[in-house]
Amino acid sequence: xxxxxxxxxxxxxxxxxxxxxxxxxxxxxxxxxxxxxxxxxxxxxxxxxxxxxxxxxxxxxxxxxxxxxxxxxxxxxxxxxxxxxxxxxxxxxxxxxxxxxxxxxxxxxxxxxxxxxxxxxxxxxxxxx
Length: 129
Description:
Layout lengths: L2 E7 L4 H19 L8 E6 L20 E6 L6 H17 L8 E6 L20
Parallel strand pairs: 1-2, 3-4
Antiparallel strand pairs: 1-3
């Protein structure tokens, strides 16, 4: 049940965004145990002065193709699972749509099942006892 917010500079084609979406979702399915039909993503395309990032901090240098992926992931995953996800994600994004590994930043947050409502005004992931 991850929810991904994907921030990047304006100007990418619909095909580019779809490839980014597909690669992200594939990495989540393959490494995070996410069901294939569980895709919730929001793209935020910003003007250059609205997306502020250090081009050289830690894994730089970063280019104008920098993408920040913030994932709300529900349950915790262990460090090994997260590392496998980061590797698989950057492998896939490098292939399609062609994003350099240094341009991919990921932040994962977790929360509890009762903090999700997929509709109908109910805590969808809570099992009634």
